[in-house]
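Researcher: Final request for today, and then I'll write up notes for the group meeting. The sequence and the SMILES for zinc ion follow.
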Amino acid sequence: MIKLGAHFGISKGFANVPEVMNEIGANAFQIFVHSPRTWKIKQLNVIDVENFKNKIKKMKIDKESMLVHSGYLINLASPKDEGWKKSIDTMIEEIKITASLGIKYFNVHPGSHLSEGEDFGIDRVANALDIIIEQIKDFDIMILLENVAKKGGNIGYKINQLGDIIKRTNYKEKIGITYDTCHGFDSNYDIRTKDGMDNLLFEINEYVGIDKLKMIHLNDSKFDLGAGKDRHEIIGKGFIGEEGFKNFFKYEKVLNTALLLETPGTDEDHRKEIAYIKKAIAQ
Ligand SMILES: [Zn+2]
Ligand SMILES: [Zn+2]
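Model: Predicted protein-zinc ion complex:
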């Protein structure tokens, strides 16, 4: 069965997420574990966590269908020591919460080198990951590096950069990747065509290993191929478009990986979008 879902808010508690997921016809989800634009992490509500885990068990939601996205202030590539250390400490805390929720996959953007250069940034991220994983290696956790749009000194807009980060760490088995279709389109990965898909899957296999692709962020793009703008659009309404996604959904690896929407709109909007995607896949 296809794993299809979206990003859900946690303002009503973690235990609310599986229910809302179910209501909109989804069977997979992504969440933040705290407000993503702040460093602050609230103390966990033990009862909420227990309720969440009970629902996951009852609904038989497996680990391949659940993802935590890190906060946005984390920058593992930062050349500034204070911000870099704060990023490492915060990410360790976020991962501990992820593990206590029984979730395995933790998604993070590699970060921005802030004009220090890509090679510096790649080393910096790899060093940060080694420090982090040293602290959490006993948990059933896998860190997924997400491909991003090329802007603001971001590292990871090409698959080989994700591969280079993994190659420079000491814990390769603890690291995988998430592929974001909008960010990839921003970086000239054209999933609308057979050639584009062949190239993308070749690069993933060549630089990272196809088995390390664990999650897909399913987003259309408000801007055309290669724009590097990072503006997500509703599936079928953007430049990837209806026909483009029909091509994307032809690939077995795509359909065997959890597809998570990060498109604009409410849970109710996502309900319609999920119905639309199910139809597109079935065709
Ligand atoms: Zn992201
Ligand atoms: Zn994404």
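Model: The domain at 4-282 is CATH 3.20.20.150 (TIM Barrel). The pocket of zinc ion (ligand 2) is lined by residues 146, 180, 217, 262 (CB under 6 Å).
Researcher: Thanks, that's everything.
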